[in-house]
Amino acid sequence: MKKQVIILGNGIAGITLAVLLQRKGIPFVLLHREGEKQPFALGETLPPSAMQFLNELKLLSIFEENAYRKTYGYHSMWGNSRVTDINFFHQNPYKNGLKINKHQTLEKLRELIKDNMISYQKGLEVIHEVYGNTVVLGKNEGVKIIQGKILIDATGRNRTVLQKLKIQNEIHDELVAVSCHIPKIQHPKLTHEVYVESFKEGWGIVSALNETENICTIFTHKGHEILSQLKEVSQWKSALAETVYLKDFLQETNQAKLKGGNANSSVASQIAGSNWLAIGDAAMSFDPLSSHGITNAIYTSAKAAEAIEKKLNFADSEAFPEYGKTMQTIFKQYLHSKNNLYQQETRWKDAIFWKRFFTSYS
Ligand SMILES: Cc1cc2nc3c(=O)[nH]c(=O)nc-3n(C[C@H](O)[C@H](O)[C@H](O)COP(=O)(O)OP(=O)(O)OC[C@H]3O[C@@H](n4cnc5c(N)ncnc54)[C@H](O)[C@@H]3O)c2cc1C
Fold first, then answer.
1. Where are the domains of the chain?
2. Ligand 1 pocket test: which of 294, 300, 303 has the largest number of ligand atoms within 8 Å of its C-beta?
3. What is the mean pLDDT of residues 22-31?
4. Entry pTM
């Protein structure tokens, strides 16, 4: 099989790029792993600033129709023990964000490009050459060979293509997340259904997923001793006993499912090559405190689609290097503002989690 573009990865970044290439009439194939499990719902929040961009890409209605709900603001207790009310009413032109139902949104987007998707079970080999890329899927008799001028890494934090191309990662911290779905309660002192609170061992966020469930995620550093308590849902309440409002959301239960994983900031040392690009988390992954992971996935896909069009249709040799440079600049700006945000919390400057933000960071 020969296609102009081969996309590896089936998340928001890969699917968005596929939809945009289809609209531009650029032949592509999207490769995904067979029988992938439905992802654990993280209930990601999309800020109002992303809505305008989605509208320009003519994707807003799909995201809106498949979201859990609209969000109109959030509360946070960060830097002091007062609750701040951040209201989107003053944002323009959109006065709301979205609580994303990623699974449902992806299902809808996949329907648009399903004829150009190929699943594979095991065995993925990438042969990268200056004049093109070959991907070999499967083993023995079931083998499929796909050739494409351009190869896209949209495999999220796995960075599968980049690993095969031996591109290094720049890792900026060791933030990890543990999430659990818990029965929904409405806190008597909070009006918005998203609440962020920092505490000595890290920070946490609780938000409403739907009518019956909240999701609570705790962020700390890899290896922190609080993680051993967070392994058991029954211990969350005691682990978070010193928090002001977070603890109120936790009820005695053993039922909730837990999901842990990396949530650190990292960037690929190279985001674009002569005939490959990385998009979404594969290019650069953001701390969820920024609420910009999904926006980044959509933005990098849109910029990658433009760069691919320039390269294929107008033989623009600068399109890929420019894409890489733009993304590296964005990542530097992001790191700066993320570190500033952490430095606004000075109450536990000497605690293991916080002191890293006051000593050395890049
Ligand atoms: C706890 C937590 C909370 C978050 N909260 C927010 C938030 O509030 N707002 C926000 O905007 N962002 C948030 N994010 C970040 C956001 O979820 C990600 O940035 C976004 O989903 C990245 O999309 P992606 O398509 O780049 O990667 P992914 O969603 O990781 O998709 C990658 C895809 O590639 C597939 N894949 C991986 N390896 C292979 C392989 N070898 N072969 C084929 N396929 C492969 C995966 O199965 C997956 O389908 C949060 C993240 C975490 C961890």
1. 2-33+100-171+266-341, 70-98+174-263
2. 294
3. 96
4. 0.95
